[in-house]
Design a protein that fits this description.
The chain starts with a strand and ends with a strand. 50% of the residues are buried. The strands form six sheets. It has a seven-stranded mixed β-sheet with strand order 3-2-4-5-7-6-12, with helices on both faces. It is 36% helix and 20% strand. The protein contains 22 helices and 23 strands.
Length: 579
């Protein structure tokens, strides 16, 4: 009997890739997709890497697929924006061996700066998109995706969502399939997308999508579940689970292939039900196409285009049932906050004191926008802090920019910040960039990157020297400061604000939660010496609370002993002690 195991959706996707015979995988960590690569790295048969960004990851997978081995790339939805350039062209080139992009959408924006729908990018790029609805399907669809990729000569997108990625289900484990490497044949008309070649390949893409749509009724991932024909649902992905929970007897057309849509199958299903409802999260991707074919259906006039769907949404909208939602309001709010001992808090406390604005970026440090620090003024996308600072300087001049800095993490800097810094130097800008080097990709769970000295598989490797990299880009002024040396940091920022060129300050202190990072001391409050000035409270460390009498208390179980509060106290009312 085959072994069965309870797996996260992301873990099941990794297992499916392993069983499908994938040999090469590249990714950039991004919630909710990160665990796919972390689990895939456990299989010795698979080469898996962290790439500096998603564009590079897709290009690595493309090279492997063209050479003749099955490959994949993983990312979150906004990462697909970064990877769009190679994706659109690979749709024309096609594959030699199977190539799958796993893209995790985030309905509800649990950990993202926007709420977008990968199915729409699939349509725009003319790349087929399939979508599983549970962990078991996640594994099987991953394997099926490679079969489709090779049969129709196309990259395939497997779309998942936060709920599916981080939910568990029973998965049946099977043996790994070892495909024979496809032979590589030189073919510039297929592999070199000059305009003349691309014109011919575009015709192939259109024919391919038409063939897939016609074949789709026979795909094992599309199925009609006929029941009560008074109401019928067209749905896909995790939304299918909600439909089945609330309407177990209804007729359902469950689509595994969501681009291209199987028109004939949909028309047949629609003809069999009295009322047709399209239940899909985010954009009306299925609905708009179905209605354009003249099929009467209901969808977004009933359900929102915003946020995550649920079974309760169906109960409330279609069954007019009152659902218990008020209990959540009784739970005390727990907004995200920088951890005790976080080096970013120390840097932001200095910037806050100096009343300096920060063009921000994507990472834990985005939390510096919130009170009490309130330092981050902008957050757009990965690497944007440096570019937006440059734009401000060109728009408003040098004097304006003296009260601004760009802040960016070490991983994000290597992702897309390098080009932005290069642009500042090339275009004779002035301005100060602070690289918050905490030796990890912190926000997504402490993944390594090109400057940490370890690969995804934990092997030692060459580490990019950020100082030398900045010098190589033409930055002459590069200062390195310990994040917790606040006096030195303030002095350095003041000095760099006055120079008439690009300068970089690298604040170095490891993330407090990194394995191997230990704080031997703990901070202790001495109420008798406390003058109730509140200086230690300004950075907003969650380990420090204000008592009723105005003095402060430090929770020793939370304190990481970074000493920031002690440095801020002018009255020696906080001491350090060994744990």
């Amino acid at each position: 009997m085959a072994e069965k195991k309870i797996m996260l959706g992301n873990e099941a996707i990794a297992r499916g890739a392993f069983e499908a015979g994938v040999k090469v995988s590249a990714a950039y960590p991004g919630t909710p997709s990160t665990e796919i690569s972390e689990n895939l790295a456990k299989y010795e048969e698979v080469y898996a890497e962290w790439a500096p960004n998603e564009k590079v990851a897709v290009e690595v997978a493309a090279g492997a697929a063209i050479s003749g081995v099955r490959s994949m790339a993983c990312m979150k939805h906004v990462g697909l924006n970064v990877a769009s350039d190679p994706l659109y062209t690979m749709a024309y080139i096609g594959v030699n061996a199977g190539m799958v992009l796993v893209v995790a959408d985030d309905p509800g924006m649990y950990s993202s700066q926007n709420e977008q729908d990968t199915r729409m990018i699939g349509r725009a790029s003319m790349v087929p998109v399939i979508e599983p609805s549970d962990s078991a399907e996640a594994k099987e669809y991953m394997k099926y995706a490679f079969d489709l990729s090779e049969k129709y000569d196309t990259p395939i997108i497997l779309r998942t969502t936060t709920r599916l990625s981080h939910s568990q289900g029973v998965v049946e484990l099977e043996e790994r399939f070892e495909p024979v490497d496809a032979e590589y044949t030189k073919d510039i008309r297929k592999h070199v997308m000059m305009p003349a070649m691309a014109i011919g390949r575009h015709v192939h893409v259109e024919e391919r999508l038409k063939a897939m749509a016609e074949d789709a009724p026979d795909f094992m991932i599309n199925r009609m579940e006929m029941g009560d024909t008074k109401i019928g649902f067209i749905t896909a992905g995790i939304a299918y689970q909600y439909v089945r929970e609330v309407f177990p007897d209804a007729s359902v057309l469950k689509l595994g292939l969501v681009n291209p849509l199987p028109r004939k199958m949909i028309e047949e299903f629609a003809s069999k039900v009295d009322r047709l409802i399209i239940f899909e999260e985010l954009e009306p991707v299925i609905e708009e196409q179905v209605k354009s074919w003249g099929i009467r259906a209901e969808g977004k006039e009933l359900f929102t285009v915003q946020g995550e769907y649920s079974a309760n949404m169906l109960r409330k909208v279609l069954l007019k049932q009152e659902v218990a939602t008020e209990s959540a309001k009784e739970v005390p709010a727990r907004p995200p906050i920088l951890c005790p001992g976080c080096p970013h808090r120390s840097v932001f406390s200095v910037l806050s004191k100096m009343k300096i604005h920060a063009a921000g970026d994507i990472g834990c440090y985005t939390l510096g926008a919130l009170a009490p620090l309130s330092v981050i003024d902008t957050t757009i996308c990965m690497g944007s802090s440096i570019s937006s600072l440059h734009g401000m300087e060109k728009a408003k001049g040098r004097e304006y920019i003296k009260k601004w800095v760009a802040v960016i993490g070490d991983s994000t800097f290597l992702h897309t910040g390098v080009n932005s810094l290069m642009n500042m130097v090339y275009n004779k800008a002035t301005g100060t960039v602070i690289i918050l080097d905490n030796s990890t990709t912190g926000m997504t769970g402490h993944q390594d990157h090109a400057a940490t000295g370890k690969t995804l598989k934990g092997e030692p490797t060459n580490a990019v020297d950020l100082v030398e990299l900045c010098h190589a880009l033409g930055v002459k002024r590069v200062k390195v400061v310990n994040s917790f040396e606040i006096d030195e940091l303030e002095k350095t920022i003041r000095e760099e604000a006055e120079v008439e060129e690009v300068s970089v300050i690298i604040t170095q202190s490891p993330c407090a939660l990194l394995k191997g990072v230990s704080f031997p001391n703990v901070c202790i409050a001495e109420p008798d010496k406390c003058k109730k000035c509140g200086a230690c409270l300004k950075p907003g460390c969650p380990a420090i609370t204000k008592q009723e009498d105005g003095t402060i208390r430090i929770d020793e179980t939370m304190c990481n002993g970074c000493g920031l509060c002690k440095r801020l106290c002018k009255f020696d009312a906080i001491k350090k002690e060994a744990r």
